[in-house]
Amino acid sequence: MAVTKRSVSLDDTVAEAVERAADEDGVSFSAWLSAAAERELRQREGLQGVEEWEADAGPLSPEERVAGEALLDRLLGVRRQARSA
């Protein structure tokens, strides 16, 4: 895999939290940031897909959103915090 080296600036508290998280996960600071950026990009793509679908089919109902969140939780095998509406 090709790697592009960049210089980034982070708030001190964010940098310290990333350092701790990377240490806990047993990866480098850069690897942790890269994985976090990948997750964010996948989430953005997913949200854009939903927006495109809703533009054609109409907005999801609250029930459809709850069902989708439950399915996503099962597929990802993660417990997510309840979201405020």
How many H/I helices?
A: 3
Distance between the termini: 40 Å
Task: Quote the beta fraction.
Answer: under 5%
Mean pLDDT: 90
Biggest sheet, open or closed, and with what strands and sense? none
**What is the tally of beta strands?**
0
Structural class: mainly alpha
Percent helix among the residues? Answer: 55-70%
Shape type: elongated
Rg, please? 17 Å
pLDDT under 50 segments (min length 5)? 81-85
H/E series: HHH
Give the helix/strand layout.
Elements: H1 12-25, H2 29-57, H3 62-76
Main attributes of the structure:
mainly alpha; elongated; 85 residues; 68% helix; disordered C terminus
Quick description:
The chain contains 3 helices and no strands.
How would you explain this protein's 3D organization?
This protein is an all-alpha fold and 85 residues long. It has a domain at 12-58. Helix content is 68%, strand content 0%. The protein has helices at 12-25, 29-57, 62-76. Helix 1 (12-25) packs across helix 2 (29-57). The protein starts with 11 loop residues before the first helix and ends in a 9-residue tail after the last helix.
